[in-house]
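Duplicate of #3305? Posting structure anyway:
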């Protein structure tokens, strides 16, 4: 395992600069497809490290890719750097304290995600050069994971067509190989068009688009009893048609997010929701148009890659947290409910341990019951490339995703240690794949076997454009 130790040392050699990158991105939280400064920071680091750079992948201005090496297999390491709205929060403070009222915040840890992935790719680049081996490593800086489905657009554009294996990670409270369960999803807007009129003098002349939205919501809610228990449907009103109650609303727009266990199940459920919308339009004598905004496929697992990454994590051990890290984490854990903490253990298949603020072990391969999962556009990549993903321990156990507590812990020493830990695991996994092409072929064979009889259908149709700023 000499090569493993070598690539870990290469991570350590440059970690401080990448901690600084993560902290800079934390301080400039940008939303879907508007990550101009964050993308530029990653591109600048790629340039400094000597990668061959490509910008604007798939027509996405903030997507960036860096490649190093020659010939051999192509290993992709996927990063992200988008933030979330309304979660501005001061760093290191265990109470709600906004930096900017109503501002953005890195409440999913993507400042760490992108920087850690780029650190791993840099270490693999240096390892390839030091050993004179054939092979290429690529860092993909992917925008708009939070509902923007950028990787789905990148898949559609062929950005991963020549990639042999994709590797990624995500910050969280535990460390281990991600159990490949996620929900396929489509986000879509239903535009209802009716006829405005005076709500008192001539209501009979009006046809309310808002009534149609309300009836659609009722119909979808009745569907819940008759859909798979793993499916999820959420909605939000984007346009209520105005604020004057004495006007019959001639327009209204509702956004739906439909999730299901896999792509075939999603496709069937989307059709049912669309039929409900058509029924609501029929009942109200309005018209409806469905416009898909984004979509993610479910994750496709890969046993050889998961076993390989787990072996590297087991040898690496948990992140080297110290007493100061545990004391810091305990302050944030004190802001959480017992339910938050218990749910965190349950999600990762770990037995609850009272008083444990930071992890001290790698969680078992395949842990977790899959009962508490969301969606990710990494799933779409996993349908076209053998893919493995890990979780990195960067926050106190119980910290909810998309919370101010997660933002506040995003620049802490524990977050940096968790990021470095993930970078080492990804880098050594990539290095072993590059050193032993037989492992790549085993991953590809598993990939092919899993998808026999299930053709890939990108949940983003060909005629859907990415929701870039200023286009919607």
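Output from current build:
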């Amino acid at each position: 395992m000499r090569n493993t130790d070598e690539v870990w040392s290469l991570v350590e050699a440059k970690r401080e600069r990448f901690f600084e990158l993560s902290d800079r991105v934390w301080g400039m939280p940008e939303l879907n497809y508007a990550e101009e400064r964050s993308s530029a920071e990653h591109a600048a680091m790629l340039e400094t490290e000597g990668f061959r750079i490509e910008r604007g992948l798939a027509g996405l201005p903030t997507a960036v890719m860096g490649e190093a090496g020659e010939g051999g297999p192509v290993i992709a390491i996927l990063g992200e750097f988008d933030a979330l709205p309304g979660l501005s929060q001061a760093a290191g403070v265990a109470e709600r304290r906004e930096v900017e009222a109503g501002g953005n915040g890195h409440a999913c840890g993507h400042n760490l995600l992108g920087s850690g992935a780029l650190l791993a790719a840099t270490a693999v680049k240096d390892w390839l050069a030091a050993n004179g081996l054939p092979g290429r490593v690529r860092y993909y800086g992917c925008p708009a994971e939070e509902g923007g489905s950028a990787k789905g657009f990148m898949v559609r554009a062929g950005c991963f067509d020549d990639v042999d294996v994709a590797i990624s990670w995500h910050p969280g409270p535990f460390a281990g190989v991600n159990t490949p369960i996620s929900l396929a999803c489509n986000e879509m807007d239903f535009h209802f068009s009716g006829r405005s009129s005076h709500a008192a003098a001539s209501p009979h002349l009006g046809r309310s688009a808002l009534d149609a939205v309300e009836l659609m919501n009722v119909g979808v809610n009745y569907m819940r009893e008759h859909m798979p228990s793993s499916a999820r449907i959420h909605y939000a009103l984007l346009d209520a048609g105005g604020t004057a109650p004495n006007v019959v609303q001639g327009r209204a727009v509702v956004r739906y997010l439909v999730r299901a266990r896999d792509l075939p199940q999603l496709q069937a459920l989307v059709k049912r929701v669309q039929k409900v919308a058509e029924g609501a339009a029929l009942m109200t004598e309005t018209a409806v148009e469905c416009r898909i905004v984004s979509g993610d496929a479910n994750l496709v697992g890969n046993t050889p890659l998961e076993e390989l990454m787990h072996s590297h994590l087991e040898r690496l051990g948990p992140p080297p947290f110290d007493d100061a890290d545990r004391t810091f984490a305990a302050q944030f854990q004190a802001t959480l409910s017992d339910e938050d903490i218990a749910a965190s253990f349950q999600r990762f298949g770990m037995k609850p341990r009272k008083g444990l603020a930071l992890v001290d072990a790698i969680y078992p391969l395949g842990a977790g019951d899959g009962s508490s999962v969301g969606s990710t556009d990494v799933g779409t990549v996993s349908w076209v490339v053998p893919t493995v993903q890990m979780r990195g321990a960067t926050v106190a156990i119980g910290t909810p995703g998309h919370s101010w507590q997660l933002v506040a812990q995003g620049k802490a020493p524990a977050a940096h240690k968790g990021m470095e830990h993930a970078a080492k695991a990804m880098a050594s996994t990539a290095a072993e794949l590059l050193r032993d092409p037989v492992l790549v072929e085993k991953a590809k064979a598993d990939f092919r076997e899993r998808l026999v009889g299930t053709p890939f259908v990108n949940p983003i149709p060909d005629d859907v454009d990415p929701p870039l700023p200023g286009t919607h």
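Confirmed duplicate; merging threads. The radius of gyration is 23 Å. DSSP finds 13 helices and eleven strands in the chain.
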